[in-house]
């Protein structure tokens, strides 16, 4: 499955990163305020404005979404996105100016690169300013710059994760896309072949099955909160806020098809679902295809990742 999330009308993406510190952020910028839902499945999340997205709460649209490295420190990047949007006059009109609505989620990448440098307000502003329809960056960019996978045999035996994207377009004009930063504690596998693409390695460099590795440990060797896969699925469908939340829930199946284990005590897996409101389609169809597209984006993230911070990548080991 080819394509990118920017194939969805009204969706732009900007990435900013520090390649030496190995951290970065990705901004999904919406040309028009759009309905958004969220579903958090991991037990160690770092999020911003997710309560606002509850269907019971007042504000029904968002102006951007920020995915970032840096653990909880990286939530500051969304402030820069707000600043950029405010300068453009974009946001919720509160009579005394505008308040841009920018939900966000972070992943833990402090174990790689320089942990003292994290995505901040300036980096978030830079990513927002770079947002465009021409998304040709994947792998070690944006929120995927310091991402890693397969940490159940110790971080030194892990592999490089990254940023991935994919999309699908139907004959009726429905477009569904996904953007994901893959930073899982588990391994990533191809659901078609069952082959493990990236995961924990043994002393000889062989890639192992994460669940089998867990069976050899009486306790987790990974501290809580050191992982997390975060994503946005977007479509040009007409959805309500509650329907968007259901799509986000269904999209998590895409992670379950490609990452094992997923939604653990050490992950903060979070998916946002955005709908720009142009095409009528059922929630079941949008949710099912969102899972498919997200699974493809996860594979793209691993295939485009490059070795960094002492961690090998799928491409380096498959050569």
UniProtKB/TrEMBL annotation:
CDD domains: nylC_like. It comes from the Bacteria. Transmembrane segments: none annotated. It holds the Pfam family Peptidase_S58. InterPro entries: ArgJ-like_dom_sf, Peptidase_S58_DmpA. Belongs to the peptidase S58 family. This is Peptidase S58.
